[in-house]
Write a structure and sequence with these properties.
Blueprint (H helix, E strand, L loop, with lengths): L7 E5 L11 H38 L3 E9 L2 E9 L4 E5 L13 E7 L5 E7 L4 E3 L43 E5 L2 E5 L7 E5 L9 E5 L5 E6 L4 E5 L1 H28 L6 E9 L2 E9 L4 E5 L11 E6 L5 E7 L2 E4 L22 E7 L2 E7 L6 E2 L19 E5 L5 E6 L4 E5 L1 H29 L4 E8 L5 E8 L4 E5 L8 E6 L5 E6 L6 E2 L22 E6 L5 E7 L2 E4 L22 E6 L3 E6 L5 E5 L5 E7 L2 E2 L3 E4 L7 E9 L7 E6 L3 E6 L3 E3 L4 E10 L8 E8 L5 E8 L1
Parallel strand pairs: 40-47
Antiparallel strand pairs: 1-5, 2-3, 3-4, 5-6, 6-7, 8-9, 9-10, 11-12, 12-13, 14-15, 15-16, 17-18, 18-19, 20-21, 21-22, 23-24, 24-25, 26-27, 27-28, 29-30, 30-31, 32-33, 33-34, 35-36, 36-37, 38-39, 38-41, 41-45, 42-46, 43-45, 44-45, 46-47
Amino acid sequence: MKRSFKAILLLSAAFFFAGCTTGLETEINDLAKRVTDLETYCAELNTNISTLQTLANALKSQNYISGVSDYKEDGVKVGYQINFSDGTYVVIYNGKDGADGKDGDTPVIGIAEGEDGNLYWTVTYSGGTTTFLTDSLGNKILAVGIDGKDGKDGEKGDQGDTGDTGATGSDGITPQLKIDDGYWYVSVDAGQTWTEVGQATGDAGDAVFESVDTSDPDYVVFTLVDGTSFSVPTESAFTSISDKVEEMNEQITAVSKLVDSIFTNSVFVSSITFNIDGSDTLSYNVTFSDGTAIVLNKGVNGKDASVPEVTASKYEDGVYYWQVTVGDSTSWMLDGEGNMIQAAASDGNDGITPVVGVEDSAGIYYWTMQYGDGNAEWVLDPEGGKVKASSEDGTSFFANVDVSSGEYAIFTMADSSVVKIPLYSAYEALMGAIDTINTNINSMSELAEALEERTYIKETEAIIYSDGDTVGYYISLSNGKSLYLYNGLDAAAPVMGVAQDTDGIYYWTVRYGTSRVNWVYDDEGNKVKAVAEDGEDGSTPAISVSKEEDGLYYWVVVNGSDTTYVEDSEGNKVTASAVKGEDGTSFFSSVTSDSDYLTIVLADSTTTFRIPIYKEFALTDWTYGENEMGTEYTLTTTGETTSYALNFTLSCSYITDPEIQYYTTSGIESVSVGEISYDSNLSTFTGTINVTFNVTPLIGTQKLLLFFGDGKGKVVMRSVYFN
């Protein structure tokens, strides 16, 4: 992790040499005291230098401050004790305020960042310039150790060869100060060699640390006497920030899942549960139809709203891209080439899920964002400054989740953008509605053909639910096919139908709500025939749905390879729904039947189907005048009448010419069958049997046996007696 440090002046020792006394003994005593004070101060300086290095190393090793307390010697506060998360501690000495010294040169040991980004020791003399401390070869002295570089992997063998050993890292070195013969010396090789850095003939200088501020729960701020300061994170703050990073990345992954679901026809929201504390919703548990689950934290507004908000929003090209909001400023996330970061797969490009992190700079953690395999970049505020990481909650990624529509889970993000994901239950209902609609369409196609051909209805049975409601009809046709006519949903669904145009041909129609009935056209602009005509086959379109980039489903009519949107009365695409509504209509406004016909009136009122009821072979009427004759009948004759007309009606859907045979006794001169009238719609045959006698009055009783047959083995016999 790269760290960026401003030069921090950490230690300063001002020694002033002056003082004229009138007595040699006083001068000797004062000099001895000053030497003792300087030696003590020198020891404290070395302690503070070591402490500084410990603080710097703490940033690198993620060893954070767990507490700060007063450090006392002989009951007197002389500094601070800094406790770390690994159980260790260091001491910072306040130092003493000395009088103005004479001729003393105060060396100030500090740390600064080199061009390579590593931290090195510096030295500054009072009134002088700051330079890096160097070793005997002129190399800068590291203040904090650096990691060795990874070795390169060896070429893969049968089981993989071991890679080369990486370069060894360099340890940081702690400078040491000492006073010898009235001069300051510094060592950068653990005391093996010493370099003179200035005269030490003055009193002990000002304290190194001006203050240690623990008022910020996230950082301990160390301020030096020269006004410079630096910060070290507290353990609790780092833990909170780490938890916040994990939470944010979980939320970003959740956003990615939601956006991906928009473009996936097989992933829907199965269930949403709410985690509630009192009257406040804290989070939403969202389970998808593919078995995966996410948690959406609603969160609360933090004190300074310093947590960046990450959202996915649809651009004008219809593609979802990532956005980041800092404060009141929202901007698109850009990669290293300035391109917007795609949030969901589209047009052959995969979506990328950004990863939130933190890195420290000058001892303070700032938010970062990484995209794919790219490097982590600072999250910047509107002024271009890095955004400080905070353990305080910022605005949640999600403002609300609404499932009240019963069809979609509507996720409103913090930036007010909306993502809609179909509820699985609603999707199942929608697919069920589509199946019902297309079943009705196929049935209508068969009914249209039945009008053109000699096809009859053999059986009709109402489909009744357990609550007693009739939801449709089962219909068996004489050609062996079975049809189902469902009443449909009282929902905002399109209604398909067939209608005869002025050319006498049946074509498909579609209507939605109160819009006018429209013909269904193919891609060449021709009306789609519902039945075969003039050597051309009819076709059966289907109602389906098309999922668009807004995540919504729209009704479409599919005819072969052609797809046409269903439009309302204003020409707008119609969203698909299986939820009941006032504007919806059934496919069929009525289905009635009698002994001869099944009558179906379509909901669009353009067509009424009257399909003949299938009739088995039967003698439905057998009369003489107004008298029903029954199976056996005795007809009383008179002397004046020589012939009698017996009327019959036969019903049969599968023949066009019945067979009639008879047997008579000797008194009957002739039996003849008059012209038979055939009604193809009713499948009936109507005619007269004429019976003539050779003499009147009849002598005895004469008998006529009639046999009506369908030519397929079924015969109906009737007996008539004349006397």
